[in-house]
Design brief:
mainly alpha
């Protein structure tokens, strides 16, 4: 994992994209998620969202999707500036970037503070748009997250 993180941080544009892709695959595994997060992978992947090429951004968002399964990483990704960058990808990215960023946002929105931060940025509509055009099960999950947040805000 250390070598992959180093490559994702200091390699060529193609090497960064390829390393982010391998990190995406590795972070499916819980132990690998821990190793990537402990090795500074969250900050590195968020950096790729901002400065990577299209492939690197999409793959970094995919890896962040997997990392955001864990509540500790949900907080770390938000603290590293990942929420704003993922929202930007959903709004302005290519099809692959939008897809992977929306998946990452879904996992991040499971954290109430992250959902509130998205709403404070005036971007709750993005979560609602993500629910449109998705499969019925995903719509139900998205509506539950958004509804839960709204319920918490009103009482």
């Amino acid at each position: 994992v250390k070598r992959l993180l180093a490559l994702a941080g200091k390699g060529s544009a193609n090497a960064k994209a390829n390393a982010a892709g391998v990190l995406w695959d590795l972070t499916i595994n819980e132990k690998s998620r821990e190793r990537v997060a402990q090795g500074g992978g969250v900050a590195l992947l968020v950096e790729l969202l901002e400065n990577g090429n299209e492939e690197a951004r999409a793959r970094a968002a995919g890896a962040l999707t997997n990392l955001a399964v864990d509540s500790t990483n949900q907080v770390a990704i938000a603290q590293a500036g990942g929420l704003e960058l993922l929202l930007q990808l959903v709004e302005r990215g290519n099809e692959q970037e939008r897809a992977t960023a929306s998946n990452a946002l879904w996992n991040l929105a499971l954290n109430d503070d992250n959902t509130a931060a998205i709403a404070k940025k005036g971007k709750i509509g993005i979560l609602l748009q993500l629910a449109e055009g998705k499969d019925t099960e995903k719509n139900a999950r998205d509506a539950g997250v958004i509804g839960g947040w709204a319920e918490d805000q009103t009482g």
